[in-house]
Amino acid sequence: MGVGGIGIWQLLIILLIVVLLFGTKRLKSIGSDLGNAVKGFRSAMSDGDKADEDDKDPKRLDAAKSEQAADATGSMSDSGSDKSADKTKV
Fold it and tell me: Which 8-state DSSP code applies to residue 5?
């Protein structure tokens, strides 16, 4: 007997019925969607842990804020240079 009183033959019959009902393509897409969801959940959890660590260390928090401010001002100046380059092309 297997787990919970279900033997290997019963599991194979259930698997066969599931494959017949859904088809292999649909089962493959369900499996890949489930895998992507688990990966997303794990990355969100690790990002949350990093954010918690940053909250505990005020020096890291200040450094992160200054980096974000520098990135924001740098991207704004880049977009302005692209507009002037577009005007010269016309």
Answer: G
Q: What are 90's two structure tokens?
A: 């016309």
| Residue 19 in domain | no
Q: Is 65 within a domain?
A: yes
Per-residue pLDDT tens digits for 30-41? 999 999 999 999
Q: Given this model, what pLDDT does residue 58 score?
A: 59
Residue 21 lies in a domain: no
**What average pLDDT does range 53-69 have in this prediction?**
64
Predicted model pTM: 0.41
Judge whether 57 lies within some domain.
yes
**Spatial distance between the Cα atoms of 11 and 18, rounded to a whole number of angstroms:** 11
> b or e along 54-70 (b: 16 or more beta carbons within 10 Å of the residue's beta carbon)?
beeeeeeeeeeeeeeee
